[in-house]
Design goal:
The protein contains 7 helices and 7 strands; from the N terminus they run E-E-H-H-E-H-E-H-E-H-E-H-E-H. The chain is globular and about 45 Å long. The chain has 243 residues and is an alpha/beta fold.
Amino acid sequence: HDVWVYRPDVPDAANLPVVYFLHGGPGSGQDVFSVGMAAQLDAYVAHGGQPFVLVSPDGNGVARPDPDWADSAEGRDRIETWLTSDVIADVEGDRPRDRQHRAIAGFSMGGYGAMNIALRHRDLYSQVVSIAGFFHAQDEERVFGGDPKLEAANSPDANLDGAPLPRILLMDGLQDTEPAVAGETQRFAGLLAPRHIPADVQLAPGHHDWDYVATQLPAVIAFLGDGFGRSVASVAPGGSPPR
């Protein structure tokens, strides 16, 4: 599977944050760059923003087109394991990041995957951004084989207890009528509030498409940058294109 990587024009280091961005289904690792993410990051860093690496892997499955960024019950698709082990190891190499310098984000199926993986691997990610995601395993592709225990274990709305919890940003388009995600952001935010789990919720005009995502990229970048902190005093403008 391809893995697209954007690196800012600063030296690599263990304290240079890394964000893993998960595409929707169907989709590819190139999608977020196709709507201008690299240019947005270049501009952000050039104006003094906190630089970070952006990694966008191809999460399509072998046995099914939409594996929900999860490990399937029968073991043919092991996307979660690949992402949280191989991809992190390959990208971060001999400068592995700690939790505070790593985040995960995604759109649609990737929004579900980002929240699910962030809650299942709380030692790995300090921030999570879900853009037009859903928060209960729907298993239309039978990723979890109809096993209620596996479905529950992969449903963010059923796994909010315990600590540490990541810093959370929930986003959705006001005109989003996609059945799987319509109203899910508001529902999930409603589950967080009584548990006193802080979350930033941003609803803006837009449909369930990458045009909407493109309009939200500045807010996503700002949220992540603020969370990582402005630890780099001066940054040379311009970053490397994704590869």
